[in-house]
């Protein structure tokens, strides 16, 4: 499983935890509720960074599309190229951050 599959699995679990934490049966079981709350809290930063990373990837796609569709509008093309450059730099930053935040093999995160 590559890092992005691992991150997607963490995000999926985070979503599941959110649903569980709103389940009346879980809420009434204090011990289980606390365990799930701790697990949810321990993955929050990772999930937030992963979601932001996915948004940056979409920004890259959008900027590339804008460049293709600029239709000779030099200002629009230049703006899109700058957005693309910025998004690619952000992508690299998030990739480094996610390498640190991603669960390691054998980790319960």
From TrEMBL:
Alphabetized InterPro entries for the sequence: PCRF, Pep_chain_release_fac_I_sf
Protein's UniProt name: Putative peptide chain release factor 1
Superkingdom of the organism of origin: Bacteria
Native organism: Streptococcus oralis SK255
Coiled coil: none
One Gene Ontology term from the biological process aspect of the record: translational termination
Domain (Peptide chain release factor): residue spans on this chain: 11-101
